Fold this sequence. Notes:
By secondary structure, this protein is an alpha+beta fold. It is built from three helices and four strands; from the N terminus they run ααββαββ.
Amino acid sequence: MQSELTREMRRAFVPAKAPTRGPWLRLLSEVLGLAGSEADLLSHAERDWASATFSGARHTIVLAFEGAEAVTKGEAFIAALPDHEFTIPRHLVADAAVTSVEHRQDLPRMTVHIEVLVLVDY
Length: 122
């Protein structure tokens, strides 16, 4: 009797399907690779996105570039991002855009906010 109860309890707590890992880690790796070693990741957020025919997620990423050389590399990152070919298995980057840039002149620093729309590629 004890073993039947134990089996029933285990079935009740075992998820029917294991959660899937999204593409966020691969996306961040590629963004940071494109931005270069001078970039600091300040934040990343992900929210689900869907249309009538596609589903995926919109990623908001904030990077900081500190120092004159880093700011120059950050400007190169801004120029390269829209045309970058991302390689994320089973996913397609539909849009990658810079949404805002903040500059500080006293201490050379640039903060870049980007949004990347990643769709599931069935």
